Automatic annotation (TrEMBL):
Its cofactor is pyridoxal 5'-phosphate. It catalyses: L-histidinol phosphate + 2-oxoglutarate = 3-(imidazol-4-yl)-2-oxopropyl phosphate + L-glutamate. Keywords: Amino-acid biosynthesis, Aminotransferase, Histidine biosynthesis, Pyridoxal phosphate, Transferase. This is Histidinol-phosphate aminotransferase. InterPro entries: Aminotrans_II_pyridoxalP_BS, Aminotransferase_I/II_large, HisP_aminotrans, PyrdxlP-dep_Trfase, PyrdxlP-dep_Trfase_major, PyrdxlP-dep_Trfase_small. HAMAP family: HisC_aminotrans_2. The modification N6-(pyridoxal phosphate)lysine is found at residue 210. One of its GO terms (biological process) is L-histidine biosynthetic process. Pathway: Lipid metabolism; Amino-acid biosynthesis; L-histidine biosynthesis; L-histidine from 5-phospho-alpha-D-ribose 1-diphosphate: step 7/9.
Amino acid sequence: MFSIDKFIRPHLLSLKPYSSARDEFEGEASVYLDANENNLGSLAGGVDYNRYPDPYQKAIKEKLSLLKGIRPEQIFIGNGSDEAIDLLVRLVCEPGKDEVILLPPTYGMYEVSANIHHVGIQRVALDERFQPVFEKIAAKQTDRTKILFLCSPNNPTGNLLNPDTVERLIKSFNGLVVVDEAYIDFTEAPSWSTRLFEFPNLVVLQTLSKAWGMAGLRLGMAFASPEIIAYLNKIKPPYNINAVTQELVSAALDKTAQLQDMLQVITTERERVMAAFNQMPLIEKVFPSDANFVLVQVANANDLYAYLLERGVVVRNRSTQPGCANCLRITIGTPAENDHLLGSLKAYSQEKSVA
């Protein structure tokens, strides 16, 4: 049976976490003289912001618990998913000794976090359909391999990973399997968070930056066993989510009807844009997408990227990523923005045909 205690870096097992002023009592008081705050108020918008925020974001976790069907003690909230990624590497990987497995092309912060903590990286490229190859991944695992990162839907390719392969990997991997679902809201597929009770080594990441439209607030989530979440809370900064973010996110989580409306617009526009791409000779391949972006392959990505910039359109050139030669990743924008993009692509085609 998997036990997270066997994977925690030894010195963290006995770590005594920082005890914040708000950790040391329950209930309400009339006079707070415990945290060296400025009791006169705040220059940033009133009295409220002179107080430290809830270090465990209890109000948000209660709403997420109802929304996601996950117990509050199974939820970690971070400053974006990037904080959860960083803390997971820090939690189980000994610098200069342990390693993680990445499946390129994939989200770049897994590699950045590993490098920051001087953790080794084993790379197992996705196949030509951007799917994981179980046998190749299994062959890379050693007793030093502590985390397998899976991104589904994958960034930058946009596709969901095969669920049967993902399940085999979770069951067989002797370490943490982190499934990053930043784009899960744009699909009809169930979240792996619905199966946490089956897999004690599973960590699922989600974010409010994409479908919920709150990238500027920086709030990400990790869902896992209560034991893993307790360790993440133990090593996180005491007040990692500021009061403004907590207030705005809590209010936004009540607007699920508006979320569905936005998702409908984005997915409809995604299909429209992809259909237009498929009619353009300059686009050699349109990859399937379960996200709010589309990966396309063209003859000369660098040239097209520069041309779009001249017309005020910024996309992402992913040509340096494995399996993504001459590929651009294009986010689905508003209908007007998408029209501008498509018009720019047609103009590019016309100019090249004349030349």
